[in-house]
Amino acid sequence: MSQGIEFNRLMLEMRSMQTEAMARAKPAASEPAAVGAPSFADMLGQAVGKVNETQQASSQLSNAFEMGKSGVDITDVMIASQKASVSFQAMTQVRNKLVQAYQDIMQMPV
Question: Which domain holds residue 11?
Fold first, then answer.
């Protein structure tokens, strides 16, 4: 049950980060960037870190189940595995969109 709660919390965090990113007005060229505001690179790095943590947690839970540790249920292992898979697929899609946007920009006539 706690795995479902963690997934919901992760989804809420991602949605709030999206809302924050969309709510910020683009600063004018003459205005400096807001102090303390996370950059896109920082936000992307945090997202990659969370995906990595999810995959490591899934791996640890799987290893614990394989070793026969008590208190580790197959349903928890499968849920953790699916969370890791979904988060990795989402990160892959974000990467694909970024690459496509970069390619579109590079193909623009000057």
Answer: 2-24+31-106
